[in-house]
DNA sequence: CTGAAAGCGCTTACAG
DNA sequence: CTGAAAGCGCTTACAG
């Protein structure tokens, strides 16, 4: 089991009877070479089974042709799709993708970034787990590493981002419910991270203050859209109908949903702010034996892409998840190629799938 | 926007007033150094913000501390989980993970392996898309690159593999249905790749010939378990009840399911060989307005982990998907560390979740 | 168009 | 325990 020695450019050069510099020029595709020499070198390379050592190349060029990705949780269909989008762009451009996971943990995120830096990635795509004060990200940017954020954008960070118009899509969905005649619309959202204000303050103030929505966590953005739609329609918001799971957990969502639905004056529609919340909600609906949409209309933000798949009775908002990844990769590669411009927040539209109808509110 | 020059070990050495060799010894954690010198070097490194260049290290040591993964389709929850398992093992051991996708396409797979080799991964984990004659994999192994296969094992390849006992789990599931009284049990399976024999020949011969099950594609293995259980129970197999979708597509599964269920003498139970088949089946069931499990019992191999999640009325077989990834990574790292042993096919057990009951066959 | 030389940032024997 | 020297496999100016 002796690991056969890898063939180097020196051996190829010797075999072809040229210098390593010349061999490098034809094999690496840089500089000039007569076609006669080129064919000889190529033949030698093929004969010996030469494969370039990109580590050595990277050492001298300073570019590794590799991008790093810090996903929050690969195990989540959302990130899996983002990753697919990234890979689809990186592959044809000859870039490798190094994958890491932060699990929404700041310490992990730091380690991940550190690992990627040591591997000398040319740039990185990250879902920052702290949108408030990511010091290590700030020093990353200061260090000149091209960086693109996905899914969320850290406040005041001079880096591109690709996010979804969570606020707009939620607003559209709730507006649709209001137009259909619903007046009591519940919302179940993660709302884990505490923003500066309490939930109550947020509800009271947010719709009237110019919040920089793209630097809020997605679930807060979606709540904002919910509030927007109510304000637009002149329908007062009932705090009782806003349920905060406090964790990205369907179990937590389920108990909040039960609390919401057992309430005497039950809502006629519920908006689940993400796929996990929707899952908890559907469990609650099943255990209470409610019929959708006859007794209750359901709309959800379908980031996991399960709902429409498995539950045709509910209306979902689709995100262009693959596009989040591919656009992020395109932006990153442009930066790496040196195309400088001011960092930009790119907001993609999410689409409300109206084909699956929302039912009218049931008579009481 | 001038990319600030990275600090090298030479600068750290100068700052600490030692040679680069010594600086390397303390920073790299190899060789001896007096504690006095060590602290001085560490202080200098911290002061300058030194980060080792692992490309340079890899060039000289010949090890990149990186493993390559060729997934069939990252966008599939199964591979996402496998990846998570791999990452969970690789991270604490300081290994990076480079991810590629084959999309079940041989040409893509070749390119992916090529890319990983050029990045000088220390080993790789792959879901071979061709279990028959993977020449490029054979030469990979011959080249001495530690390799572990997951989900399937190519025939006659001298490499470790981690797979699931598809045959045993399917057999157990079908046996459970037979014990509950079902006599007509349908099966919907992908069965895309043509094995040596035709489907009919396979059905006729397989249970009686000593097939090397681990080198069949998963869906064929599952069909084998279906046949096993019938033979064990002395229940004759009806070819009519075996439906081959011919593609990993829920659309194809749906039409086969409709054909199966509209059949005059309808089966009383159906086994879906994977999550996608189950999805197509559930759509067919919905459009035919059949009640599960009252009119039809359903068991599925739940590789996508959706079914149990979304459809409590069906019984699912769970695979230890995370474990597939973590075990593969453990094996690979052991190989990389030089722990030689004969390549082994590791078969993990899949568990039939019986808590969700299978109904008895309906009276006709 | 081609080659000799230097160097990318580390680690590895080898002296001392 | 520490340092000077060589070298990993490439690419990059610089001559010719």
Helical segment tally of chain A?
14
The spatial strand order of the largest sheet of chain A comes to: 2-1-3-4-5-11
What is the number of strand segments of chain A?
12
The portion of residues forming beta strands of chain A comes to 5-15%
Largest interface: A-B, 52 and 52 residues
CATH fold group of the largest domain in chain A: Rossmann fold
Distance between the termini of chain A: 78 Å
Query: From the coordinates shown, what is the CATH architecture of the largest domain in chain A?
Result: 3-Layer(aba) Sandwich
The low-confidence parts of chain A are: none
Fourth CATH level, the homologous superfamily of the largest domain in chain A: Response regulator
Briefly note the structural class of the backbone of chain A.
alpha/beta
Shape of chain A: elongated
* Pattern of helices and strands of chain A: HHHHEHEHEHEEHEHHEHEHEHEHEE
Oligomer: homodimer
Overall domain count of chain A = 3
Mean pLDDT of chain A: 88
């Amino acid at each position: 089991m002796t690991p056969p020695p890898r063939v180097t450019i020196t051996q190829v050069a010797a075999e072809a009877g040229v210098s390593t510099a010349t061999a490098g020029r034809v094999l690496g595709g840089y500089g000039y070479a007569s076609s006669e020499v080129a064919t000889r070198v190529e033949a030698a390379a093929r004969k010996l089974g030469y494969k370039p050592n990109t580590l050595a190349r990277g050492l001298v060029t300073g570019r590794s042709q590799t991008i790093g990705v810090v996903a929050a949780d690969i195990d989540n269909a959302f990130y899996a799709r983002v990753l697919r989008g990234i890979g689809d762009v990186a592959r044809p451009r000859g870039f490798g993708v190094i994958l890491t996971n932060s699990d929404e943990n700041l310490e992990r995120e730091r380690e991940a970034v550190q690992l990627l830096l040591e591997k000398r990635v040319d740039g990185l795509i990250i879902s920052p787990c702290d949108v408030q004060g990511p010091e290590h990200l700030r020093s990353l940017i200061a260090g000149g590493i091209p960086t693109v954020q996905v899914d969320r954008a850290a406040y005041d960070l001079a880096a591109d981002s690709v996010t979804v118009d969570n606020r707009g899509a939620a607003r559209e969905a709730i507006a649709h419910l209001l137009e259909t005649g619903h007046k009591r619309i519940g919302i179940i959202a993660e709302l884990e991270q505490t923003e500066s204000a309490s939930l109550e303050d947020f509800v009271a103030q947010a719709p009237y203050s110019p919040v920089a929505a793209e630097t809020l966590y997605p679930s807060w953005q979606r709540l904002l859209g919910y509030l927007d739609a109510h304000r637009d329609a002149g329908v007062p918001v009932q705090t009782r109908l806003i349920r905060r799971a406090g964790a990205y957990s369907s179990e937590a969502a389920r108990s909040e949903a039960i609390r919401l639905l057992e309430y005497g004056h039950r809502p006629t529609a519920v908006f689940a702010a993400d796929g996990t919340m929707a899952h908890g909600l559907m469990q609650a609906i099943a255990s209470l034996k409610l019929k959708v949409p006859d007794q209750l209309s359901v709309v959800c933000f379908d980031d996991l892409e399960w709902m429409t798949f498995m539950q045709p009775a509910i209306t979902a908002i689709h995100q262009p998840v693959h596009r989040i990844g591919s656009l992020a990769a395109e932006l990153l590669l442009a930066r790496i190629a040196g195309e400088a411009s001011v960092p930009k927040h790119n907001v993609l539209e999410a689409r409300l799938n109206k084909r699956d109808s929302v039912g009218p509110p049931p008579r009481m």
